[in-house]
């Protein structure tokens, strides 16, 4: 399974979001640190879920990282998160 699909499935299962966009932005980082041929190293994620309602910004980021798991986070060089309700 691709990293993009894995991110999407894990976040969908953990948060039942109303909006979930996972964009592989690796190509725009060609030549920069962490870039790998074939992509799947740099991601932009936009997620909206009621699960984040009473959480601080830090708590939301921690929840997303926990849902993704250390195994998947370890395969990603850069992860930009836009988290909201």
Number of helices: 3
Order of the strands making up the biggest sheet: 1-2-3
What is the CA-based Rg, rounded? Answer: 13 Å
Helix % is 25-40%
Q: What pattern of helices and strands is seen along the backbone? A: HEEHHE
- Cα(first) to Cα(last) distance is 28 Å
Low-pLDDT residue intervals, each spanning 5 or more residues: none
Give a written overview of the molecule.
With 85 residues, this protein is of the alpha+beta class. It contains three helices and three strands; from the N terminus they run H-E-E-H-H-E. 34% of the residues lie in helices and 24% in strands. It has a three-stranded mixed sheet with strand order 1-2-3.
What is shown here, in short?
With 85 residues, this protein is of the alpha+beta class. It is built from 3 helices and 3 strands, in the order αββααβ. 15% of the residues are buried.
Write the layout of secondary structure elements.
Blueprint lengths: L2 H13 L3 E6 L17 E7 L8 H12 L1 H4 L4 E7 L1
Parallel strand pairs: 2-3
Antiparallel strand pairs: 1-2
Features:
single chain, 85 residues, alpha+beta, 3-stranded mixed beta sheet, 3 helices, 34% helix, 24% strand, elongated
């Amino acid at each position: 399974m691709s990293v993009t699909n894995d991110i999407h499935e894990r976040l969908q299962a953990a948060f039942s979001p109303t909006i979930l966009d996972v964009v592989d932005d690796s190509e725009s980082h060609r030549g920069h640190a962490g870039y790998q041929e074939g992509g799947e190293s740099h991601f932009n994620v936009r997620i909206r879920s009621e699960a984040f309602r009473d959480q601080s910004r830090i708590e939301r980021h921690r929840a997303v990282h926990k849902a993704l798991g250390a195994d998947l986070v370890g395969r990603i060089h850069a992860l930009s998160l836009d988290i909201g309700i």
